[in-house]
Every structure is written in structure tokens, then in C-alpha cells.
Write a structure and sequence with these properties.
Blueprint lengths: L5 H9 L4 H10 L9 H9 L5 H15 L4
């Protein structure tokens, strides 16, 4: 399977096609769930430890857009 750009996957998900995403999750996360704890698995996949900063960036943007907080 070729590596798809994020926008390709985003468009597929928006169209209701989650097959490629599910395949990626199964191959890169689910099958390793018994071997690694969440902290180690995150570091192996992303190259860094879990970081609350990314969640804060996401919710700040989401709610700023929804409630026009800019």
C-alpha cells in the first residue's frame, strides 16, 4: 500500500471511506498493543512521548473556529 498524503486520507474519511485509516491503525498500532504500553507505542510511532500541547492546539483551534474567538 502506498503512503497517502494526509489530505487524501482526510478526504476519504469525509466521504465515509475509513478502510485505509483502519488498515494503517491495524498495521501500526493495534498489532503492537500487547507488546508495548501506550507511552512506548506513542514514542515508537511519533518519535516523541505523549505531549498535551497537541491536544491543546487542537481544542484551541476547534473552539476558536466554532465560537469565533480569534
Amino acid at each position: 500500500m502506498r503512503k497517502a498524503r494526509a489530505t487524501d486520507i482526510d478526504n476519504k474519511i469525509l466521504d465515509g471511506n475509513t478502510t485505509e485509516l483502519l488498515d494503517w491503525l491495524r498495521n501500526n498500532i493495534h498489532k503492537h498493543g500487547e507488546k508495548y504500553d501506550a507511552k512506548d507505542l506513542c514514542k515508537r510511532i511519533t518519535g516523541e512521548e505523549l505531549n498535551f500541547k497537541y491536544f491543546m492546539e487542537y481544542v484551541t483551534k476547534k473552539y476558536s473556529d466554532i465560537y469565533d474567538l480569534n
